[in-house]
Amino acid sequence: MNMLRVWGGGIYESEDFYDLCDELGLLVWQDFMFACSLYPADRDFLASVRAEAEYQVKRLRHRTCLALWCGNNEIEQLNEDLLKNSRQRKAYTALFHTLLPDVVQHEDGITAYWPSSPYRGDGDNSPEAGEQRGDTHFWGVWHNRAPVKDYEKWRFRFVSEFGMQSYSSPATQMTFCPPDDANVFGPILENHQKNIGGNQVILDYVSRRYRFPKSQDDLIYLSQLNQAYCMQTGVEHYRRQMPHCMGALYWQLNDCWPVASWSSIEHTGHWKALHHIARRFFAPVLVTAHLPGEETAGIGNTRRFEINEVHLYTVSDSPAARRAWLRWEILHLDGQKLVQQKKAVTIRYAQSVRQKTLSLGRLLKQHGRDQLVLRISLEVDGTIISEESVFFAPPRFLNLRRGKTAVALTMKTTTEAEVVITSSVFQHRFALEFTGLSPRFSDNFIELFPNEPKRLTITFPLPVTRARLESLLRFRSLVDTYEENC
């Protein structure tokens, strides 16, 4: 990621936050602290707002990271009918189109001001308008329970909010929930789900994509896989639209308390699957696959949905041009490698290029879409810089195999270990954990391919022994989440 949005329903962040953003080269979209509701515009209130805004602008105007001042979050969008009232419109205009831009101009004078998020300039909040101008909050996926591939229906210019909920990890839930009342539909966890009907929406999307889980921990894992899949689908689509679309900020980065939410980082600092996978779909140089067509998972007879071709793209936000190898393989889930090909490509800054279209009708007809996986990668100077696997059916239909998994652990220091993982079969979103510890992984929720070792580095906050780590080691992949004979 290269931009974070400080949301208008939250707080102005601390100096430490802006210090880190300056140091790391992260841009900050800075909302003023107004969100969703209408506000008064009497003399006393406007004076209070002016004092607040002047203080914050003076405090932050010198920051290298400061990219944009934004008046508010969603007030214009959520109050479209109320703002047709001339008195309400006058108050809104006084605050967000007169006072705040005036403060920004006089106290900053450099950083751009944007009245609201989203904003189109003419009050048109339709998705069609978002394809032409301004920024968009797209919530058809989640709030409307639209198919995930609905992200691909729109060519927005800049997407400043979209998201999908998942549950926090069992470790984070243990920080507030006693073991005898840890059911995700129980009263305590229901109190930590602040979206009305949120649990039902999570289950709806999980059931479209995955088989029924055999335990609550597996349900939590599946909810995180689904969240990562949704954000990956959206972000990769928006990046493929470059330069028409030049921004995608998913909601949300972090939690302010332990909760089921749209975050990719839990309140404890634990990374959800999304945050690991975001490192891949937000990588400076990306290989991405587009499967044309409508998503019908969960609607009608899904097994008749046909895919005949896949488009392979490269996308680059990296300043340097470079030569690379685009590689693709078609693998049968029984371990056969049916196709293995490559193409020399040139990667250039700020370009999205369709590099290859694969015609798959014959292979899919011969072997069945439930038996195949497409592996794509981008290699520069002998190093794979981007890689992913692609399915031709919802994973609940895949005939995934169970096999032998070997995990070899070596201590590099008292706080750093190297893990080498080898699997006899393909495993999707293989995840390691060390019960009760909070390490930082070089990668996690990874793809394992038959007999190809995968090497990870794991850093621990406190010294630990190899024997203890081996006793705490747990792992699972998608195939482990459901009963073998169910």
Descriptive notes:
The chain is α+β, with helices and mostly antiparallel strands and 486 residues long. It has 3 domains: 3-281, TIM Barrel (Alpha-Beta Barrel); 285-393, Immunoglobulins (Immunoglobulin-like, Sandwich), CATH 2.60.40; 405-481, Immunoglobulin-like (Sandwich), CATH 2.60.40.10. The protein contains 13 helices and 20 strands. The strands form 6 sheets. It has a 4-stranded parallel sheet, with helices on one face. It has a 4-stranded antiparallel sheet with strand order 10-9-12-13, with no helix packed on it. Helix 2 (43-60) runs parallel beside helix 4 (86-107). It is globular, with a radius of gyration of 24 Å. The two termini are 40 Å apart.
In short:
The protein has 486 residues and is of the alpha+beta class.
- CATH homologous superfamily label of the largest domain: Glycosidases
Which of globular, elongated, flat, extended, rod-shaped describes the shape?
globular
* Percent strand: 25-35%
The tally of helices reads: 13
Let me know the average pLDDT. 95
Strand order of the largest sheet: 1-2-3-4
Radius of gyration: 24 Å
Low-confidence stretches: 297-304
Number of domains: 3
Helix-strand category: alpha+beta
Gap from first CA to last CA: 40 Å
Largest sheet: 4 strands, parallel
User: What's the CATH topology label of the largest domain?
Assistant: TIM Barrel
**CATH architecture annotation of the largest domain:** Alpha-Beta Barrel
Number of strands: 20
